[in-house]
Structures are given as C-alpha cells and as structure tokens.
Amino acid sequence: MDIINNIDGNKATMEIIGWLDTQTAPQLEEALSKLGDEITNLVFDFAKLEYISSAGLRQVVSAYKKMSGKGEFKIINVSDEVYDVFKLTGFDQKINIEK
Amino acid sequence: MKNSLLKRIVVYICAVFLVAIVVFGSLSCIDNIQRTTRLTTNIAKSASYIVSQIARDYDIESLINNPSSKRYSYLQSSLRSICIGEGLEYIFIYIPDMENNQIKYVMVVAADEEKNSEVSVDRKAGTVVDHELFDAEVKTWNSGESTVYEYSNETYGRFASSFNCIYDKNNNPVALVCADYSLEKIYTEIISETVLRMSIVIIALFALFALTALFIKKKIYNPITMVFTSMKDYITDKKVGKKTFQPIDPGTNDEIQLIANFFNEMVVDIDSYVDKIKTLAEEKAKAVTELDVARRIQYGIISKEKNICMSDNFMVSARMKSAKQVGGDFYDSFLLKNGNVCTVIGDVSGKGVAASLFMVFVKTLIREKLTDISDVAETVKSINLEICQSNPEEMFVTAFIAIFDRESGKFCYVNAGHNKPVIIRNGKAEFLNCPPCMALGVFDDSEYKQYTADFSNGDILYLYTDGVTEAVNENKEFFGEKRLLEVCTGTQYTAKSLCQSISSSLIEFINTGEQFDDITMLAVQRQDSTLKLNCRLSELGKIREYIFSLGLEDKLKKKIFLACDEVFSNIVNYSGADLIAVSYNKTADKISIIFRDNGKKFDYLKDMPKKDFDDFDNGGMGIMIVKKLCTNIVYNYINGENVLELVFTNNQNN
To answer: Are B450 and B435 in contact (CB under 8 A)?
Structure first.
C-alpha cells in the first residue's frame, strides 16, 4: 500500500493506493500521527484503494475523530466495493463519503 | 340338519312293514277265499249227494202229495240237520220241467229258522215256479253227474249251488237236489277273519317296531347325537377361542364309543397342535420384529452412506448395502488426537442378531481402545484379548484398521484376517501389501503386526468386505479381485466417486443375481488443501493467495478475503495461538473456509462485546463485518482447537 500525502495550507489530501488491510493499516496510522495540528481539513482519496478491512476502517475512525470539532473530514472517490464495506459497518451514516 | 337319522329309519321301517302287511294280507286273503270256495263247493257237493241218496228211499210223488206225513217231516228235519250241520243256506228238492222251464218244489229247508219258516210256506210241496233251468241242472238231470253252479241272486246274494239227481228204483231221475252255500257269508267271514288276524300281526309288528325304534334311539341315535353335539360345540368354542371341551363318554362300549374315544384323542392332539402353532407364530412375529429393530439399530450405528470430511487432510466416504438378513459387516471412521484419522472395516462371522450384537461390541471396543497412533499392533492385541474374553459363542471378526497420520503423510495399518485393501496412487490401483494376521476373537494370544505405507496427496485407500469380491451374478461368477482392480484404476477418483463407481459396477454385475452378503466399503483419500500458518500478521498474504487460488469470481474472492482478514487478525491479536490452519470446502452453491487454531477457547459469536461507532477505533468492527458477509458461521471447540467455519453463498450474482 502506498500513501501520497498532499498538504495545501491547512488541508491535507491523502491518496491511499492498493490494499488497506490488517497488515498495511499501521502505515496509515503512522501517516495520520504525523499530521500537524494545523490541519483542519482532511480528505482521504480512495480512487485507487482496492480493498479495506476493519483495520483500515479503524484508521478512518481515528481520522474522523482527529478532525471532529476542529475541522472537516471526508472521503472521496470511493469505489463501489469499498463503499459496500462502509455500508456494512454503518460508516456511510456518520462520515461524509463521496463516490 | 335336513334329515334326522331316526326319522328316516322310522319311515323306512314303517314303509317296509306296511307294504309287507298289505301284500301278505291280500295274498293270504285271496288264498283263503280260493281254499274256502273249494271246500264249500265240496261240502255242497257231498251234502247234495247225501240228500240224493237219502231221498232215494222216498217216493217223491207221495211226498208232494203228503207234506204233512211223518215221512215228509222226517226227511225235512234230516235235511235241515244236514243244512245246519254243513253250514249250508238252503237245501231244495224239486222236480224240473224241462219243456216248460218250470220247477215243482218237493221240499225246501233253510238253516236259518226264520228263512226256513218262510220257505216252507212260500215254496211248500207242490209249488210250481217258472225257472230258466241252468245248464248245470240240465246236465245233472240228463247225465246224473253232480254239478256245481255259482250264481248271484239279488234277493239272497251269491251262492254256490251243488246239484245231484234223485233216482227211483229203476234208476230213472225223479227229482233234483240243490244244496246252496252262501259265498257272500263265507267271504265276509274270511275277510273279517283275515283283517282280524292281520290287525293282530300289525299290532304285534308295530309293538316290535316301537321297541326296535326305542332301542335304536337309546343305543345308537342318542349316543351319536351326543357325539356330534359335542363335536359341534367344540368347533363353535374353537372359533371364539373358548376351551370348554369335556371328553365325550356315550358309555356304549361299541363303535360309537370308539368314535367318541378317537374324537377325544383328536381334540387333545388338535388343541396341543393349535397351541404349538400359536406359540410358534407368536415367536416368529416377535423374532421378525426383533430382527427389524436389530436392523434399524445396526443402520443407526452404521449409517448406510457416509461422506465425511474427517479432517482437513482426509476425505472419507463409505457405503453399505446389506443383504436380506441382518449382517455383521461394519465400518467406522473417527478422529484421533492431533487430527489423525482412524478407519476400520470389519466382517463378523455369521449373520443375524447375534452377529449384529457382536459387531456393535467390537466396533465400540475398537473406538474405545484406539486413541492414538502409537503402537497400533499392541492396541489391536489388547482388543483381541478383550474380545476373546467376552465371546461365549466363539464368534470372530476380520478387520482392517488403518490410522492416517496428518503430519507425516503416511498411514499405519493392522490386518486382522481381512481382505487386502486396494491402494490407488496416481491412478494406479494395486492391492496393499499386508500379510494378514489372525482374525479377532479366535485366539487370545494372537500377535499383530503393524505396517506403514506412504499416503500422498490424492492417494486413495479402498477398504471393503468380501461381499464386494464375492458378489455373484446370475452365471454364478464372482465379481473377483481382477474386476475390482480394473474399476479402481484411474486418476479421476475422489473417495466418494470411487465408492459410487464400484457400487454401480457391482449392481450392474449382479444384475438379476441375488445379493447373499452385505456389501460394505470405505474409501479414504488424502486431500491436502490446508494452509498452515504461523500466528503472525505477515502471513495474511498467504491467505490472500490461498483464497484467490480457489477459482472464484473477483467480487466473491474479495468478500471472502475480507472476512478471513478479520478472523485471522483476531486470532493473531487475541487467541495466543501459535498455529493456524485454513482449509476450505466447496460445493456447487456454497463455499466454506475453516479456521483452526490452538489458541484459547474463544467463541467469536458469543464472546464479542457490542460496540458503538465511536469505539471502533479500538477494534470490534471485524466480527461485525464477518457476520454481515457470511451466510452462516459455525464455531466448535474440538480436541483443544477452535474451529470456525465461515460459510458463503457461492453465487455469481452475489
């Protein structure tokens, strides 16, 4: 899995490419922890994300919590397959997800 | 009863007596009449003759002229004496006048007093009356010959009259004598006498007959009635199942007594036979029911057809087609420690309930004793010893016991007098090298030897009983080992398809022949499809490869992998296991992934606390996802292992 982190002022766009599973989730955790406090707008670009497991979802929750009360968090370019997983877990109700 | 014997006897005897009486009475009556007629005629003849002789001494003319003379009276009284004495009706002396057809009476007497007075006035001497002379009269007058003439007179009835001629001294006829005898009177007498006599005979005969009938009734009819009433009652009672029969004793000491005695004996015999038959029938019905129960129990213990995935490495398939009777064939397949598999096939000597019971005992014993792969021969020896100690009927059982080692890929086996199994390696079938040891239950000191053979992935070991090789077709040929090997040869087989294939070959071979013995078979195939993993997250890639190699549709693959990812990470993170095995099972509409781990017991379905969204960053979503992805989740804790089976619908549309 690869993560491409684009920071533009206080907005960070993280492009996650490949498989976000138990094995790779720690990478995202690390990337999130490196984000500075000045970031108030966080976007996950899932255009090239092929797969997400609960470990990945956990990082999504982390990111969501990080932004709550402080700024905005959204996920964009979600493929149908990944969206299905969000739907399974009810994430689509809580998080701003764009297909 | 339509006809009574007694009634018939009475009617027959009556008829015979009546006919006899009528015939005999009539004949004797006729005979009497004839004899009496002859006799009377003779009397009449002799009377008329005597009168003619007496009258010879009298001058007829002077008698006519002097009817009041002494001589006249004398003759008259003589004649009357004769008349009465001979039983005649009348005696006439008269002179016939041939030319004028007249007669002139000289003297007439009648036996009867009244008639005598009458005629002595009506036909006093000298009275002339017209009278057509009979031929007999003319003949007597002319020839002097005595004649008899029978005639009927309306006034006086039937008479037999005898004529004689009275001659004078010169032998010239001077008058005729006629002696009348009343036939009617005689006939009446004869008939009345006959009737009287017959009546006496009839009364006597009827008395005799009544006595006979009484005798018959008492001595024959009553005893026979008693015997047949008794017989009838016996039959009636028999029908309703009552037993009230008392021996019959007519007390006659004759043939009827014999019939009664024989019947008494017969009843005793019949009753005892019926009781025997009843008992036999009951016993038979009981035996049939028991056999039926035995058969059902046997089938319950050994299911007819079985396809079992015993462990992730071994596939076992078995089937049994029993002959008509309850047989002693059995098979068994069970899991030992460490996932090793034990399979047993056996054939108990004999058939029926005994064989079946013995089979259950042996099967249970083997399962109980064989718990480990180490020293199988010694275990079999102790099994044999135990069978010998509890075998009063001296039955025995041939058995083949094989234990498949999951780790080493080999199997060890003991052959206790059983048929050589077939081993199929790379499509080549041959009999397994296994010198047989003694069957179980024969000698308590039998030694058993164990052998080991390789059992690579895809290899099949085919176990069977002699019902397979000794199946007989309508030409009395055996199926035989050669045919068996031919059918077994080929790479296409799985344990299940091999059993199916041999079964259908057997059915085709036996065709219209009869199946004499149980046909029992069991096949074990090694199927290495298990992924063995260390308990590290870095092994997840192997699971992905494993699942992606299953030839499933892309979307399903990912769905399954997602669930596996969640389960696997849970095991790695929480179970404390060090080994995880993943295997799969695929059917047309379902696919299941089985996880085994030797970690602490953890039921994912029950033990997982429910969490809210905000806690999800601490985990807990995994099982929720798994539950939503799977159609079914089965959890078991077996032999110290968590076994979790995830079932998915194998459908292209999902």
So the answer is: no
In angstroms, rounded to a whole number, what is the distance separating the alpha carbons of residues B117 and B594?
161
B230-244, B269-283, B348-362, B615-629 — which is least confidently predicted?
Answer: B615-629
User: CATH fold of B37-189, please?
Assistant: Beta-Lactamase (3.30.450)
Give pLDDT tens digits for B385-402.
999 998 888 889 999 999
Q: B562 contacts in A (CB within 8 Å)?
A: 51, 53, 85
Report the C-alpha gap between B399 and B395 in whole angstroms. 13
Determine the residue among B617, B623, B630, B654 to mutate to test chain A binding: the one whose Cβ has the most chain A Cβ atoms within 10 Å. B617
pLDDT of the residue at B43: 85
- CB contact under 8 Å between B541 and A65, yes or no, is no
CATH superfamily of B304-526: PPM-type phosphatase domain (3.60.40.10)
Which positions in chain A touch B610 (Cβ < 8 Å)? none
> How many residues are given for chain A?
99
Question: Which CATH superfamily groups domain B531-649?
Answer: Histidine kinase-like ATPase, C-terminal domain (3.30.565.10)
Is the domain defined by A2-97 classed in CATH 2.70.130.10?
Answer: no
* Contact residues on chain B for A58, CB-CB shorter than 8 A: 616-619, 621
Asked if residues B336 and B372 have their Cβ atoms less than 8 Å apart, the reply is yes
d(C-alpha B181, C-alpha B161), whole Å:
6
Q: What is the pLDDT of residue B281?
A: 93
Instruction: Single out the residue of B195, B191, B174 nearest to residue B183, CA to CA.
Output: B191
Confidence band, pLDDT 50/70/90 cuts, at residue B547: confident
Contacts of A51 in chain B (CB under 8 A): 558, 561-562
Q: Are B67 and B124 in contact (CB under 8 A)?
A: yes
Q: Per DSSP, what are the bridge partners of residue B523?
A: B317, B462
Find the chain B residues whose C-beta atoms sit closer than 8 A to any C-beta of A.
Answer: 537-538, 540-541, 555, 558, 561-562, 565-566, 568-569, 572, 613-614, 616-619, 621-622, 624-625, 628-629
What digits encode the pLDDT tens for the residues B298-317?
Answer: 777 776 556 665 566 788 88
Partner B, chain A 33-62, Cβ-Cβ below 8 Å? 51, 53-55, 57-59, 61-62
Mean pLDDT, residues B230-243 taken together: 84
pLDDT, greater one: B301 or B176:
B176
Confidence of residue B483 (pLDDT cuts 50, 70, 90): very high
Handedness of CA B237, B239, B240, B242 (dihedral sign): positive
Nearest CA to B416 out of B404, B403, B402, B400 is that of B400
Query: How would DSSP label each residue in B441-475?
Result: TS-TT----EEEEE--TT-EEEEE-HHHHT-B-TT
Task: Quick: pLDDT tens for B453-481.
Answer: 988 777 899 999 988 998 888 888 899 99
